[in-house]
Amino acid sequence: MERYKSKWFAVCVLGISAYLLSSKLSVNNTVDVESLRLLSNTFVEEKLQNHSHEFDVAQITEIKKKKERVKNKTNTKKKKKKVTEGVFVAIGYAIANSVIVECNESLVVIDTTESIASASRIREDLLTSFPRLQQKKVKYVVYTHYHPDHTFGTKGWVDDERNPPVVIAHPQTTKELERILSLTSTITQVRAQRQFGTILKKLKDSIEPHAFSHLDAHGGDRSSHYGHECGSDHTFDYAAAGAAQDQDEQLRLQQVFQNDSSIFVNSGIGPFLVFEGPFDRSMFYPTLILNQTIEILDLDGTLQFIFYRNIEYMYTYVVVVIVCNFGEGVTFEFHHAPGETIDQIFIYLPEKRVLLPADNVYRAFPNIYAIRGSPTRPAREWVKSIDSMRALSPFPRYLVPHHTQPVYGEEAIYDVLTSYRDGIAFVHDQTIRFVNLGYVPDDIVVLVRQSMPERLLSHPFLQEFYGTIDWSVRAIFQAYLGWFSGDPVDLYPLSKQQQGTYTFVSQRRIRGCFFVFVFFFLSVNHCYLVFSIRLTKMVKSPNVILETAQDSLLNHEKRDDCQWALQLSDALLFLSKPANEMSKEDLILAMTETEVSKALDIKIKALQCLASYMTSANGRNYYLTSAYELLHQKHADSEYVSERDREWVSHVVPLEQLFQMLPVRFKANEVKMFNSSMCFHFTDMREFYMLTIRDGVVEVCLNFVCLCEQKKKKKFM
Predict the structure, then answer these.
(1) For residues 427 and 430, what is the distance between their CA atoms, to the nearest angstrom?
(2) Does domain 488-638 have CATH number 1.25.40?
(3) pLDDT score at 239
(4) Using CA atoms, how far apart are residues 84 and 81, in angstroms rounded to an integer?
(5) Given pLDDT bands bounded at 50, 70 and 90, which one contains residue 141?
(6) What are phi and psi of 62, to 5 degrees?
(7) 3-class SS at 24?
(8) 387 or 235: whose pLDDT is higher?
(9) Which of 123, 189, 231, 377 has its CA 20 to 30 Å from the CA of residue 246?
């Protein structure tokens, strides 16, 4: 009974808190011209000349982003750095960095890049720069995860393949290595070459410059970010990369790119993918697995004590923290940290206070989905992994990512870790929030980006040089709900070939209407808003499209005819919805009430038509229920899910889960620039929770497992 009362009390308190936090706060959305002058550079001065009045926040944000990218001196130009005594990092030799830790009698190499050639160059340059390392043998190689840019260069550190170094990795790493080299390896390789621009690197002398100035500029931004020298001051010359309006300008642009083609070719988190032939890769599988069966190791005749502790995550395999020193005088903490991969580990050297976050932190927006083809990365677990880094004690003084530059100083590192986890958490939580409100991926992409706090949008470690907000939103949606958007129009979308066929047939039927371009705006993951506006502009009248849809529906001979009518009518209906993202020019083409009513009628009948073709009960029911909802303008769940049902769920769900549900229900777009914390101590249940809000991001600390709880622990015990 006491537990029941506590849970009921928690539900009431959380409801009141959510109501208070959802109140709108006033935000100043304008900045005077003098503020802009503080950002003085060529780009900003041009803005000032063209605008004599106030600028909104979006304009200021874009200017700050460009200034950040242009003036950023951190880069991945080839270099070797001594981070602190006994810790070295090689940057710019390949996509990934390689870290070398000096122990009493040996070296520990952490990640070996994607290439034997690049690993060999790192080894040669490092030993040349630091001669004392030449006397020490590489006894251990650590893989932070399975990605090829961290594992395929190991042979460069091996002198005798009959007696190779001990290779240390998570238990899942071997399985993941085998996976990427088997079933889908062929197409993944092809798409990876596209993603990393490998062929662009090879064709650098013959590549034509971009025809669009903003693309040239953006390429320059990225290249400046990674340190390819674009000029004497290492900044990109926007004037030289402007639009090519005449032949002389085109020649100047071509000269810029041919002199340094890397201006627009890089991998986003490093300079380029190193691949010097089919024999430039090696595979040394892990020989020392980090799992809970290890208690004592006998390495080189010396007993090493290793201990572990379990942490709960969504994955079934064990999550461990292992501490060992290999008998070499340096303590290594191996923490399992699912994030960019499920086998990811981060490494902490407590005596040196050096944190190696692997690929869970780098100076670019996290790649929650890789367009080369990968499972969606677990965003919630990624956040938890970074929280584990934030909870380290003593707190790190050196952060050495395996892509991009190190970060120095406790305050700077804390800011990077907190902002990075907030960026992932915000995109995840707000995506799920809009999912539960019934939005489809195309809408959610816009809504999440519009509501993202300025603190995160402008943070140097969250610029979209690698991952993007849009791809992350779509990947998170797919991870939870699969490929189907929830809109019945996407159940059986027409193929591109079918769309082309219907397009040209429509063009023949309606003379003077440019339907030939419809093909380019319809796809499986279409953006109906853009399609609707452009389609209507092309034909000058929604009635033309409505007549085409009506004709396809009335004379249907197969399911595809009904689908074509559904796609056309559904696209037009987007013009009848509130569209604050439309420009005034677009709103001129808004539909009349009569046209909206006709489009709605066609859509309902198209859904019923598609249902008649369905053998699957699931599909037939979905089409007919969707038609019912449109006809009666209400969702089906309103008749079957009552407040009493929701109250029942609140009683049967564990208290911890109730708190975990709060972040995905937080109205971030209504509460910006707001920071606060609330603590909940349930004395009868001996449970403590802390709710922290930072600019639209909600962090829930459960039972003293995160940093902010530890700081408050004594106060509430």
Answers:
(1) 6
(2) yes
(3) 34
(4) 9
(5) very high
(6) -65, -40
(7) coil
(8) 387
(9) 231
pLDDT of residue 703: 65
Instruction: Indicate whether 512 pLDDT > 80.
Output: no
CA distance 387 to 381: 10
Query: Distance between the two ends of the chain, CA-based, in angstroms?
Result: 23
Q: Name every residue whose Cβ is closer than 8 Å to that of residue 1 and which is 6 or more positions away in sequence.
A: none
Q: How far is CA 454 from CA 62, 462, 640, 694, in A?
A: 11, 11, 40, 12
What per-residue confidence (pLDDT) applies to 354? 97
Q: What is the DSSP letter of 693?
A: E
Strand-pairing partners, residue 699, are 692
β-bridge pairing 55-56 and 79-84: unpaired
Tokens representing 495? 């193929």
Instruction: Produce one character per residue of 171-209: b if its CB has 16 or more CB atoms within 10 Å, e if not.
Output: bbbbebbeebeeeeeeebeebbeebbbbebbeeeeebeb
**What's the token pair of residue 480?**
């939870």
Distance CA 267, CA 371 (A): 13
Q: What is the chain's mean pLDDT, rounded? A: 74
Structure tokens, 125: 């340059």
Residue 64 confidence (pLDDT): 55
Statement: residue 511 has pLDDT above 60: no
Q: Which residue has the higher pLDDT, 335 or 324?
A: 335
Reduced to 3 states (helix: H, G, I; strand: E, B; else coil), residue 407 is: strand
Residue 580, pLDDT > 60, answer no
> How does pLDDT run across 152-176, given as a tens digit for each residue?
999 999 999 889 999 999 999 999 9
The phi, psi pair for 516, rounded to 5°, reads -60, -25
DSSP 575: G
Phi-psi region of 496 (alpha: psi -120 to 50; beta: other; left: phi over 0): alpha
Determine the pLDDT at residue 180. Answer: 84
Edge-to-edge strands, sheet with 137-142: 79-84, 87-91, 98-102, 106-110, 137-142, 166-169, 288-289
What top-level class would CATH report for the domain 79-183+279-410?
alpha beta
Alpha helices (runs of H) in 514-654, residue ranges in sequence order? 528-539, 542-554, 559-573, 584-587, 593-612, 617-632, 643-652
Helices within 325-367 (DSSP H only): none
DSSP helix/strand/coil, 616: coil
Enumerate the domain spans of the chain.
Answer: 2-24+644-716, 32-70, 79-183+279-410, 198-263, 420-479, 488-638
CA dihedral (371, 376, 381, 384) in degrees, to 10, reads 30
pLDDT score for 11: 45
Checking DSSP bridges between strand 98-102 and strand 296-299, what pairing results, if any? unpaired
Query: Positive or negative, the Cα torsion across 230, 236, 237, 239?
Result: positive
Name the residue with higher pLDDT: 175 or 685.
175
What pLDDT was estimated at residue 543?
Answer: 81
Edge-to-edge strand ranges of the sheet holding 697-702: 675-682, 687-694, 697-702
What amino acid is encoded at 575 in this protein? L
281 token code pair: 């890769």
Q: Residue 181: which residues within 8 A CB-CB, separation 6 or more?
A: 283
Give yes or no for a contact between 429 and 470, defined as CB atoms under 8 angstroms apart. no
The per-residue pLDDT for range 78-123, each reduced to its tens digit, is: 889 999 999 999 999 999 999 999 988 889 999 999 999 999 999 9
| CA 528 from centroid of its chain's CA atoms | 23
Cα-Cα-Cα-Cα dihedral of 705, 711, 714, 717, to 10°? Answer: -40
- How is residue 688 written in tokens? 């403590």
CA distances, 265 to each of 68, 225, 471 (Å): 19, 12, 21
Q: Are 35 and 28 in contact (CB under 8 A)?
A: no
pLDDT (0 to 100) of residue 32:
34
